[in-house]
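Appendix B: a complete holo record

For completeness, this appendix reproduces one full record from the ligand-bound portion of the collection. The bound molecule is zinc ion. The inputs are the chain sequence and the ligand SMILES; the output is the full three-dimensional arrangement of the complex, encoded as structure tokens. No fields have been trimmed.
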Amino acid sequence: MQKEPQTRDIDHLILTAHTKNHLALIEESLIEDEITCIDGQDTYLSNHSIEAAKQGIVNFCQAIDDVKNGKTERALCLSRPPGHHAESSKAMGFCLFNTVFIGALHAQSIGFDKVVILDFDVHHGNGTDAMMRQNNNDNLYFISTHQGDHYPWTGNADTSTAQIHNFPIDANTGSSTMRELYLKRVLPTLKKINPDLVLLSAGFDAHEDDPHGNLNWTTEDYHWLGTHLNNYKTVATLEGGYNLQALPLSVLNFIKGQDK
Ligand SMILES: [Zn+2]
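The structure of the chain with zinc ion bound, as generated:
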């Protein structure tokens, strides 16, 4: 197992989705032994942040390769920082690089024709949404469920297109609302697209105990969601999830659901 990421190859992957200026800015912002805020809000760099972000991208792409090569049908990569808020030239919301979008382009480059990014983090993946609009890619789709009228205040239903499906959910709802939405709208949309691969922006901050969301999903809901996605080849990357008791239980339940 290689410990250090292969910088040149990783940078090549990052530059499929991000500008050179963005990558340079992130790297130049790192100050050794200091914690640096890079967006004036909530996105910070410490000594190993960039290394961790790059290794997360490598691991995600490796898992996609493993599915392509038939080693497994499903994988979940537990890496941080998250990625779905990162735009092509902007870090935000704890995210430096958009791992899931980089992975989607990688998946297509190795022969997955039709790829869906499904994002079930409590926050809308504004970075992924923006990259979708910048890349005219007929075989790439984005489906997001997220809390409406909430950070980052994007992803209204009326911004949906033929390839971008935004499903905001009202705050202070719960399991029944979530399951009904998935059964009536999300899963039928996925079925209609009939993708070769589903990449998951797997955020677990819609959990009822999470400090950053108000959708009140339960650990059982994540099991249910995993079960309902196991008809597909899936590779998941960890996005949000900030209650450190709820997060591992939610991840475990999701994996158990996928294993059915
Ligand atoms: Zn989130």
